What does this fold into?
Amino acid sequence: MLTFPDFQLPFTVETDASGIGMGAVLSQRGHPIAYFSKPFPPKLRHSSAYVRELFAVTTAVKKWCQYLLGHRFTIITDHRSLKELLTQVVQTPEQHTYLARLMGYDFQIQFRSGATNQAADALSRLSKEESSFSLILSVPCLTFMEELRKQLAQNETY
It folds into this structure.
């Protein structure tokens, strides 16, 4: 069951890339908020596992930027070398392109083996007919008016 996001809690983005596509899960405290799956274009299917995994990370962050921008979050991937993404030497133009897409976000990357990254792993292996879907449950939570009422109630001149 999907849950509503709580912007006071940190987000987690779990990603996985297979040979045919990518899958991602946005969650908080282990409860999913949204799922995302997308097949790879033919050119990306022939790229290295590193490039496919990096594409999955950047695509998921872009998909959920409205949740992640301005908030600290954790990216969980089953590709060990991505754990050092922010500290390794950038050697290819592809790496520059993907890293530029992550600029401005406050995140850390954690490694988790593929066997324990089951939801994102399953989403990345959907066939073309089943994939390219996104499930999101979101309701705006407007707190400005309630906060204004509280502040005005405490101020004697109003």
User: Anything to note?
Assistant: The longest strand covers residues 31-39. The chain has one domain: 11-154.
